[in-house]
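for the writeup, i need someone to sanity check this before i put it in the appendix. the sequnce is what the collaborator sent (i think, or maybe the updated version? ugh). structure was predicted straight from it, no edits. if anything looks off just tell me and ill rerun, i have time this weekend
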Amino acid sequence: MTSDSLTDVAGLRVGHATLTGDGQLTGTTVVLAPEGGAVAAVDVRGGGPGTRETDALDPRNLVQRVEAIVLTGGSAYGLDAAAGVMAWLEEHGRGVRVGPDPSHVVPVVPAACVFDLGRGGDFGARPDAATGRAAVEAAAVTAPFAPVGQGNVGAGTGAVVGRVKGGVGSASVRLASGITVAALVVANAAGSGLDPATGALYGRYFEEGEGRQDPRPAPEVHQAAERRLAEVAAENGPQPLNTTLAVVATDAGLTKAQAQKLAGTSHDGMARAVRPVHLLNDGDTVFALATGAHPLADDPLALNEILAAGADLVTASIVRAMLAADSVKTPGGTFPSYRDLYAKR
């Protein structure tokens, strides 16, 4: 069974909490690991990150496994969502054991945020602990290998890439070795996902395989889209648009240091799909998870195919996020989707 998304890594579940209407356009996404956790690491490349518990993921530090990763809107305010996830995990006895009783645990819940403040019209509308709890509860009740919701959901609800609506995207691959690698992305970038010369999504230039089509829209369609985007830019005024987040996961048995290498090389996939990236006002962050169900071959270079796949899947997930997104118009602005702009491509 395959969903071609992050949940193809056995044991991982994804839940979204989406906040819309009444000035809201934001949300939270939780990646819930199998009980007992997954080896975790992180690589932060953006110059303006908003994160929580990322220092715990340094390979030099104590914590080896985490029970959940939180991706959230609301900028730094939205990091409160992690408290709701932490409370749910404590209630279920999941976390780092710190006492004689099984309930004596401290859940380590790494989190990162995207900037979407005010996009629904209310600057004060942002995820909180209750939003995080709703997202982890949604993840917990999903069936194994359930497809991941994409587009305007969870942390991608208010996401924008350049001048075009962003969102959540996900993809997976099963390697010849039998190892599964997958990614989930929240695409919300200051840079653009579109080639300005053609209107093609940058990430589609890297697509391979049978059935690959020319990703470039007809020139007249691109020209019409550019006119529409210029109108929207004049209407919206300056928009602070920043931060792409990703979780790259595998069922391979990785050490914490190997997982950190995976998180780092996966940023290459971001750079293929969004230009420019990793700016001072971006918070671009990639988490890596390894469940360990599939032993890694006894070869110092066995990790390479996983590293390459991670980058490819981040690119593919950004493309899917932009193709899955729907146009949105709120008191906070007009955010057209790529599909609507290039419907005749």
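The two ends are 32 Å apart (CA to CA). The CA atoms of residues 11 and 177 lie 19 Å apart.
thx in advance!!
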